[in-house]
Amino acid sequence: MTAYVVTRAEPLENAEKAYEKGDLVSALKLSLDYLGRRPWSREASLIAARCLSRLDYPDQAEPYFHRVGTLSLEDLLIRAYGFVRGNHRERAIAAYEEILDRSPENLTALRLLAGVQMTQRNDPAVLKLAARLIKIPEAASIGYTLRGVTQHNAKIREESVAAFEHVLEIDPELRAMPIPRKIFWSNLAEDLLTLGRTADVKRYIAPVVKNEPDAYLLNSLGRAYYLEGNEAEAERYFREAAELDPKDFASHLNLGRLELHRGHPDEALTQLQQAVALGPRQYDALYALAMAYRRVGRTTEATELEKTLETYREVKAPAPTVAKTPLPRHAL
């Protein structure tokens, strides 16, 4: 009898060891082999369910999770994240809500549920989750970031900036803030420029670009100086952005607009042609190039561009703020 028990138990122990080492494929095979002899084993079912879920087979994991019965919070999180990775968003939402019913302040569940809701563009749900996170001291930076990103995407600039500034107050090094730093600073810069808060753009962004040079942020800083009438500083930052990222159409667009404003259409034409070469379907670049053609008397080229722009008019109007490379919607 002892030999029988040892023989039967050893594969399960090996499955557990393989799982602990992160060898999910071996752990799955061993647990399934064990279940082939002992189909009632909850321990083996749990290992199989965990492995299948983490290997992106959430549907196949479900029967094994059900065999286990009541799951721990850890296993509920594994199951929920399996739905996320499998792109079963509604099932992921339900799974995270089940976790939060049991553990209302579970940070992992709150954060990942917010991420799923953002992909669903369910702003009211995201904002409610953000409010819950803000009430938890160690998660307040995450909550304010969620609020800021949501309001930024909705173009509610004042509330977006207020939320991002709260992040900077409580998390000045952005260590807990959950999105990429570039996206955080880009969103803040865009919203501040839209609100005309050029002094705050310089206050926040100038120190950032010294340590983290970025073409978009350099263009934003240049735009702030341009709006204040400091064309020399604006040009300096636009050129620095162009040197940093030679493939960035926005830097040449901004330089071209600056030269048009100065009354130098020939110089503007050079920059704007480069902008269109780098961004051939960018409305703002085409629009500015058509203006430059008009200024230098090249009416045929201007007319052709204006005909092209007519086909874009219903899709996108000229943006009044800084030209930029489009940023994706943000997931946590």
Spans of 5+ residues with little confidence (pLDDT < 50)? 1-7, 314-332
Number of helical stretches of at least 4 residues: 18
CATH class of the largest domain: Mainly Alpha
Q: How many strands appear in the DSSP assignment?
A: 0
User: Could you estimate the helical fraction of the residues in percent?
Assistant: over 70%
What gross morphology would you assign? elongated
How far apart are the termini? 53 Å
Largest sheet: none
Looking at the structure, the CATH topology of the largest domain is Serine Threonine Protein Phosphatase 5, Tetratricopeptide repeat
Radius of gyration: 27 Å
In N-to-C order, the SSE pattern is HHHHHHHHHHHHHHHHHH
**What is the residue-averaged pLDDT?**
90
Q: Output the structural class.
A: mainly alpha
CATH architecture of the largest domain: Alpha Horseshoe
Number of domains: 4
- Proportion of residues in extended strands: under 5%
Query: What would CATH call the homologous superfamily of the largest domain?
Result: Tetratricopeptide repeat domain
Outline the structure in words:
This protein has helices at residues 2-20, 24-37, 42-54, 58-68, 73-85, 89-102, 107-119, 123-134, 140-153, 157-170, 181-194, 198-211, 215-227, 231-244, 249-262, 265-278, 283-295, 299-312. The protein is mainly alpha-helical. The chain has 4 domains: 1-67, Serine Threonine Protein Phosphatase 5, Tetratricopeptide repeat; 70-179, Serine Threonine Protein Phosphatase 5, Tetratricopeptide repeat (Alpha Horseshoe), CATH 1.25.40; 196-246, no CATH class; 248-326, Tetratricopeptide repeat domain (Serine Threonine Protein Phosphatase 5, Tetratricopeptide repeat), CATH 1.25.40.
